[in-house]
Predict the 3D structure of the following.
Amino acid sequence: NAGVTQTPKFRVLKTGQSMTLLCAQDMNHEYMYWYRQDPGMGLRLIHYSVGEGTTAKGEVPDGYNVSRLKKQNFLLGLESAAPSQTSVYFCASSYAGSYNEQFFGPGTRLTVL
Amino acid sequence: GQSLEQPSEVTAVEGAIVQINCTYQTSGFYGLSWYQQHDGGAPTFLSYNALDGLEETGRFSSFLSRSDSYGYLLLQELQMKDSASYFCAVRLTDSWGKLQFGAGTQVVVTP
């Protein structure tokens, strides 16, 4: 049981490049989330999904897109990376009825030059 | 906008007790969660208070007063491994499916 996994662990991009971060969970959770974490700012929700094929905007969605084609996967896309998107990105998942308890992946450290 | 307030840093010695407060201005929320995050690691769930009162889990306890929009995490018999950041998070009544996190409190445990 791997829990929540994220790919890649580290990435360096140049401004304007695009990339996709992959999140996978094997706990059959309904809900999945993408957060970014910047120093002194805690966890900020980018987008989330309450089920396969559905997504919703969080607190800081601009510049990001997401897709959830399969229940176990949640993809985060950056179409045109900007230095302001340099951050650590965490994916999380939870059961629908108990989303107060979220299970986090190990994170992806992204640097945009 | 809505926000949670918690102290940025707390320092204490091994064996001591630390209380991390979390306050929130809102018309209503379901409950309060606490997460722990070690440097370079992923946040991990510690506790959830759905009802007012004290919940105890080993050395850690969490308290909630919904009428006061206030809660705290109590760390007892501090150990060096408790050095980490601790985040409170609220489950709001007007935003199903998501949590709002505080900025975190860094706890530094010294010998």
Summary: DSSP finds no helices and eleven strands in chain A. The mean pLDDT of chain A is 95.
